[in-house]
Every structure is written in structure tokens, then in C-alpha cells.
Design a protein that fits this description.
The complex is a heterodimer of chains A (277) and B (234). Chain A is 74% helix and 0% strand. By secondary structure, chain A is mostly helical. Chain A has two domains: 52 residues, no CATH class; 205 residues, Orthogonal Bundle (MetI-like fold). Chain A is globular and about 75 Å long. Chain B has one domain: MetI-like fold. In chain B, 78% of the residues lie in helices and 0% in strands. Chain B has ten helices and no strands. In chain B, helix 1 packs antiparallel against helix 7. The longest helix of chain B is centred in the N-terminal third of the chain and has 32 residues. The model of chain B has no long low-confidence stretch (mean pLDDT 90). The chains are: A mainly alpha (277), B mainly alpha (234). At the A-B interface, helix 1, helix 5, helix 6, helix 7 and helix 9 of A face helix 1, helix 2, helix 3, helix 5 and helix 7 of B.
């Protein structure tokens, strides 16, 4: 018994050490963001801000293009999520409920396209978008994001739709509902959690995306917020790490909130998800 | 240059995927053994790490490993792991890529850990208890009882990780620095990006893209087939 307790104490200590190591970068970002410059650049690091300041946040918010680029990101994300959700919902219903010619091929494409490395597609997409005047335009970026968001949303939603018992829908139709009525009253509410989860995923991937935004949008004030952050070095004479960490914190907040919302769903096996990098 | 880059990318991918999978699985096994409150704390920590946008993570990494007063240098020196005072972590191509690996593995662990942890709950408790009563060692129990249940999930995670790490771009490009991309530290994605856009040689860049896509397509076969089977069974 005592050996067992000692064992679990050891595991707990290991778990806490691991927690400290994993979370340290997040902690260090926050700590730096709230510290005064004297403490940021001191020889021995100051762990917890002695006299917390918001000046770095103020600098970041007033830095050129912060707000326009946040606005650009929000536009891109909302339009992408909106279109992806509507289109993928219908595609998912079709995949889950109907047999049609080319269905198998469609599924292979849906899964396969998610696997393509984005950098490998950047040159052809750049050339095609350039021909149609969509380089340096948010619409071009939205189009590209849709091609990546759609397969993921279709596949995930299909799983949710398949999880709904068929009898429910049939029962509604027997009771005199039309197909559309059954669809709206039975299917839609049941799929709602799935719709929320997929839209959050589409939100996070488009908010975080860097390669395409960086390549397609090249003039200041027309970029997204991740590109803005990648160019942020602060003033001319030295790198303003306080401001960079403050900006990093601000940009992470929406993602963290959404992640905490859907974290449980991921654990339930959305392994198909391309939510990374 | 293509073959050198391919070779470097393959070594880089193997190192990243190996570390991610081993560490991720070990942490998942640890999660089962700790007290509830530690598990909760660790899970929240993992989700926080997972939620860091890659560009943000790169900035934090640069700041932690800066040679003048990087906190990593300070902590490692204080722990007597060597003298890292003003140590430059980005001196050689190998050290640059090693830093990219630490960043990618750190960011990838949560996804693997949380997924494997979910799969661990599928392992029948009675089987483990029966094996314990029979006097089986912990390693044997893991190998003969736990691992077979985890295998499908580990296979999917490994193929996903291979595909992601093989195509890694944001982390190597930004952490090493857009201006510091040279043939001796090229990874595949960076290589075709620099060749295609940096030198505006779209033809060459596109040719590299096609080769890269072909390689990934071959690697994806395992994953796609597996997902098809899972999907059709559902």
C-alpha cells in the first residue's frame, strides 16, 4: 500500500514538472508582455512582473496596421467559415444519406486533399489567382482557405450526421412532415453541435494561417494579423520584445477561447482534423 | 541540391515524428497514472499549448532562445547543464533545425497526447487487472494488452505527423528567419518557396512542388485507406 502511494506521488511530481515545462513558453509570453523594459532586459530574468504595466499592449494596439489587419483577418475568417459551413453541410448530408455515382472518388478526394502540403500548392495557386487579379486581394485568400476548410468540414459533419438515428427522421416523415420539414426540425438541431465544432475548427485554421496570407498579400494594411505579427520587430534600434509578446498574447486570445470550447469534441475522435500548423 | 534537401527533410521528419509520437504517448500514459487534479491541470496546459498559433509560438521561441539574454540559456546554465551564457542556438544549420524540431515537437505533443489518452480509455480494465494478477510486468502489460488497442490510433497519428512535418514551412521559415534561408538548411517546403518566389523561378518551384506532392501522395496512401475503412464502417 505504501509503495503504491509513493509510486503515485512520483507520477504526480512528474506530471507537475511536465506541466511546468510545457506551459513555460505560454507563461513567459504573458510575463514578458506585462513587464517593464528594465525587467525584460535585465541580466537575471525576472519571473513575475514586479510592477505590471500595460504599455506594451498600448504600443501594439497603436502600431501601424494592427487594427486594419485584425479587421482583414476577421473578414477572411467569417466569410470562410460562413461559406464553408453552408456548402459542407449539404455535401455532408449527400455523402451520409445518398448513394451517387463517383461517391467513393469524392470521399478519397475529400480525405486526400487535406493531406497535401500547403507549400506545394502555393506556386500553382499564386499563378492562377494572379491571372484573375486575385493576388493581393482578400477574396483570393478566402478562396484558398475554402479549398482547405471544405474537405475537413465535409468529412467531420458527415460523421455527425451519420451519428443521428435514421428512425427519428423517418418518424417525423410518417407523422406527415415533408422531407424539408423533417430536415429543418429534426436533423438541423441534432447536427448543431457538429456545426459549432466544425466552424470553430475552420475559424482556428484560417485565423492561424500564415503561408498563403504571407505570399498572396504583400502590401501593408492589406494583410492578415499573423503576417502582421511575423513582421513585428518593434522600433528601429532594438527588438521590442515586450510589444511582440503583448501582440502575441492578443492574437492568441480568440484561439484559446475557442479551443477550450471544443477541446472535448476533439478528444472524442476527430482524428481526421487537420488542425495544426 | 534537390537530393540533399530531400535527405535533410527525411531525417528532419523522422526525428520530429519519432520524438512527437514517443513523448506524446508517454505523456498520455502518465496522464492515466496521476491524480485527478494533476490530470486536469496538465490537460488545460496541453490545450493552451495546442491553441498557440504557430506564428505566435515562433515569436515566443525566438525570444526565449535569444543569445543576449534568452531565458533558456539562463535556466540551462543555472541547472549546471553547461555554460550557455550568450550561446547562439542558431549557429549551424544542424542547430537551427534542432531548434525548429523542439518548437514543432512541443506544439505537436498535445494533439498526440490527448488523442492517445482518449484511446487509452478503450483498453479493457479487466484485462490489465487479470494480467497483473498473473504477475505480468508493466512492460509486458503495455506491449501485449495496451499497445494492440492503441495501434490503430497510433498508426493514424504517425501518418498524419509524417505528412505534416514533411511539409513544415511556417516554423522553419520564420524561426530560422526569412533572410537566413540558405541551401545548407533548406527543408523541402522552404526550398521550393525560395526557389519559386525568392528567385521568381516559377517553373523550377513548380517542378519541385510536383515532386514533393508525389512523395506526400505516396505517404498518404496508408492514411487515406485507413480513414476510408473507418469512415465506411461508421
Amino acid at each position: 500500500m505504501s509503495r503504491r502511494r509513493a509510486g503515485s506521488l512520483g507520477w504526480n511530481v512528474a506530471g507537475l514538472v511536465l506541466f511546468a515545462v510545457m506551459v513555460f513558453p505560454v507563461f513567459w509570453m504573458l510575463s514578458t508582455a506585462f513587464k517593464g523594459n528594465d525587467q525584460i532586459y535585465s541580466v537575471d530574468p525576472v519571473w513575475v512582473p514586479g510592477h505590471p504595466t500595460l504599455s506594451h499592449f498600448r504600443d501594439a494596439l497603436h502600431r501601424q496596421y494592427f487594427w486594419t489587419d485584425v479587421k482583414n483577418s476577421v473578414i477572411v475568417v467569417l466569410v470562410t467559415v460562413g461559406i464553408a459551413l453552408v456548402l459542407s453541410f449539404f455535401a455532408a448530408v449527400a455523402l451520409a444519406k445518398y448513394r451517387f455515382g463517383g461517391r467513393k472518388l469524392f470521399i478519397v478526394l475529400v480525405i486526400g486533399i487535406q493531406m497535401l502540403p500547403q507549400a506545394g500548392l502555393i506556386i500553382p495557386l499564386y499563378v492562377v489567382l494572379g491571372k484573375h487579379g486575385q493576388v493581393n486581394a482578400l477574396t483570393g485568400v478566402i478562396l484558398v482557405y475554402l479549398t482547405f476548410a471544405l474537405p475537413f468540414c465535409v468529412w467531420t459533419l458527415r460523421g455527425f450526421i451519420l451519428g443521428i438515428p435514421k428512425d427519428l427522421e423517418e418518424a417525423a416523415m410518417v407523422d406527415g412532415s415533408t422531407r424539408l420539414g423533417a430536415f429543418v426540425r429534426i436533423l438541423l438541431p441534432l447536427v448543431a453541435p457538429g456545426l459549432v465544432a466544425t466552424s470553430v475548427f475552420a475559424f482556428i485554421t484560417s485565423w492561424n494561417e500564415f503561408i498563403f496570407a504571407n505570399t498572396l498579400l504583400h502590401s501593408g494594411g492589406k494583410q492578415t494579423i499573423t503576417v502582421w505579427l511575423s513582421y513585428l520587430y518593434g522600433g528601429n534600434r532594438f527588438v521590442d520584445w515586450g510589444e511582440i509578446m503583448a501582440a502575441s498574447t492578443l492574437i492568441s486570445i480568440p484561439v484559446v477561447i475557442f479551443f477550450l470550447l471544443v477541446q472535448r469534441r476533439i478528444a472524442f475522435g476527430l482524428t481526421a482534423g487537420a488542425v495544426r500548423g | 541540391m534537390f537530393w540533399h534537401t530531400l535527405e535533410r527533410t527525411i531525417i528532419f521528419t523522422v526525428a520530429n515524428v519519432g520524438l512527437t509520437m514517443v513523448l506524446g504517448t508517454l505523456i498520455a500514459l502518465l496522464l492515466v497514472r496521476v491524480a485527478t487534479w494533476v490530470r486536469l491541470l496538465l490537460t488545460v496546459g496541453l490545450v493552451l499549448v495546442w491553441a498557440m498559433p504557430p506564428v505566435v509560438a515562433v515569436q515566443v521561441w525566438s525570444w526565449m532562445t535569444i543569445s543576449q539574454n534568452g531565458v533558456v540559456n539562463y535556466v540551462l546554465t543555472q541547472l549546471h547543464l553547461g555554460d550557455f551564457f550568450q550561446h547562439n542556438w542558431y549557429e549551424t544549420p544542424t542547430s537551427q533545425l534542432a531548434m525548429v524540431t523542439t518548437l514543432i515537437v512541443w506544439g505537436a505533443i498535445p494533439f498526440v497526447t490527448i488523442t492517445v489518452y482518449a484511446a487509452l480509455s478503450q483498453v479493457p480494465r479487466e484485462l490489465i487487472e487479470a494480467a497483473q494478477i498473473d504477475g505480468a510486468r508493466a512492460w509486458r502489460i503495455f506491449k501485449d494488452v495496451t499497445l494492440p488497442v492503441l495501434m490503430p490510433v497510433l498508426l493514424i497519428l504517425t501518418s498524419l505527423s509524417i505528412i505534416w512535418d514533411f511539409g513544415a514551412f511556417t516554423q522553419p521559415y520564420l524561426l530560422i528567419g526569412p533572410g537566413q534561408q540558405v541551401p545548407s538548411n533548406y527543408l523541402m517546403s522552404v526550398y521550393l518557396y525560395v526557389e519559386g518566389f525568392g528567385k521568381t523561378d516559377f517553373g523550377r518551384g513548380a517542378a519541385i512542388s510536383i515532386l514533393m506532392l508525389a512523395i506526400v501522395a505516396i505517404m498518404s496512401v496508408v492514411y487515406v485507406r485507413r480513414m476510408l475503412r473507418v469512415g465506411e464502417a461508421a
